[in-house]
Design a protein that fits this description.
alpha+beta, Muramoyl-pentapeptide Carboxypeptidase, domain 1, seven-stranded antiparallel beta sheet, 6 helices, 25 strands
């Protein structure tokens, strides 16, 4: 018989015990961490209400009209000008002088083409009156040139620094320069102080007008609803095809600093039927905009597991213990934004939907 010494026997016994413990670790099941058990037993979740506008980065493709210019209606020597490339011309103010006589910028839908005297009437008189009213003058826009209109014209000219305004008995068209919008950017300046000008000469080049503006490409998978594009401080409605359809909105866009910056960075327009497609370096051929809902939409954010029986945007949830029909607004990062089809609030949704009843 082999005899095992005391120390060796103790070591062997320890090794046998360690081997047994290791084998038990593989055989006996481990209890899951407490956090996992709690998660596995979750059967519902809170619904978080929030308002969304579904902002999407997009680009407006611009079809530009012909080049526009700031033209004077008088001949003489240019004795003053505030024109700068990238500057601004504003209706109701004077930005230049010919023979020391200030020339006043005035915005109307179409250029004013004649002197106006007492009794004259027509659409040009009405457009003058409309602009005077926009500038804060108290005048009735009735399309007839009368004493009230003359007083407003004189007040406008006096505010612009015209010295001989007290002698005016009519609207002298040569003392005004037409602007296509209340405020326009000047892309380049054609003349400098000391140059001779002739009536009809251009003193500055303005950004071209806009014949059309459309989203290109139009973002996909957006939340349905009336939408707008945001360009700087402008908020412009778009139709279902992604077009800025209103002529007034196109004019506002054409007068915006964002469009002026875009037009200044554009290459020479390429001739095409109905206008020119401007291609701007680094702007993918358009003006960057934000495409969003016209009005905020109230939705609930719920776990994706709470949504069942989805067909397109229509789906169901078990809301506060009852099946409810909902519309899916969007889904991302495991959360689904839903809008109840019935007027109801949702506090909690079920996550156990495998046996949930239909909601429709």
């Amino acid at each position: 018989m082999i005899r095992i010494s005391g120390p060796v026997g103790g070591l062997l016994a320890f090794l046998l015990l360690a081997a047994g413990a290791l084998a038990g670790a593989f055989v006996l099941p481990l209890s899951p961490p407490q956090g996992i058990v709690a998660t596995a037993n979750v059967s519902s979740a809170s619904a978080k209400q929030l308002d969304i506008t579904d902002d999407q980065a997009a680009t407006l493709a611009i079809t530009a009209g012909p080049e526009r210019k700031l033209v004077v209606n008088v001949s003489g020597t240019l004795t003053a000008t505030s024109c700068t490339a990238g500057g601004r011309a504003e209706s109701g103010q004077s930005g230049l002088a010919v023979n020391d006589v200030p020339i006043i910028y005035l915005s109307t839908p179409t250029p004013l083409w004649r002197d106006l005297m007492a009794g004259d009437h027509g659409p040009d008189v009405q457009s003058l009156q409309d602009e005077l009213r926009r500038l804060g003058h108290s005048v009735r826009a009735d399309g007839r040139f009368g004493p009230d209109t003359l007083r407003s014209v004189i007040a406008l000219a006096k505010n612009a620094g015209v010295a001989d305004v007290r002698t005016w008995t009519s609207f002298p068209v040569s003392r005004f320069a037409w602007l296509p919008a209340p405020t326009v950017e000047t892309m380049t300046c054609s003349l400098q102080v000391g140059d001779q000008v002739v009536a009809g000469d251009a003193v500055a080049v303005l950004p071209p007008g806009i014949e059309s503006a459309r989203l290109s490409p139009e973002p996909r998978d957006v939340v349905p609803g009336e939408r707008v594009v945001v360009v700087g401080d402008l908020v412009l409605p778009v139709d279902d095809s992604g077009n800025v359809a209103s002529p007034d909105d196109l004019a506002r866009l054409a007068a915006s600093p964002a469009y002026a910056a875009y037009a200044a960075g554009a290459t020479a327009p390429q001739a095409s039927q109905g206008g020119s497609d401007l291609q701007r370096n680094g702007a993918a051929g358009g003006v960057p905009v934000t495409f969003r809902l016209a009005r905020g939409l109230s939705v609930y954010s719920v776990p994706a597991a709470a949504v069942y029986a989805a067909r397109g945007r229509s789906a169901c949830v078990v809301a506060d213990g009852k099946p409810a029909a909902v519309t899916i607004a969007s889904s991302q990062f495991g959360q689904t934004l839903i809008q109840p089809e019935a007027s109801q609030s949702i506090a909690e949704v079920s996550l156990k939907t495998s046996q949930a009843p239909p909601c429709r």
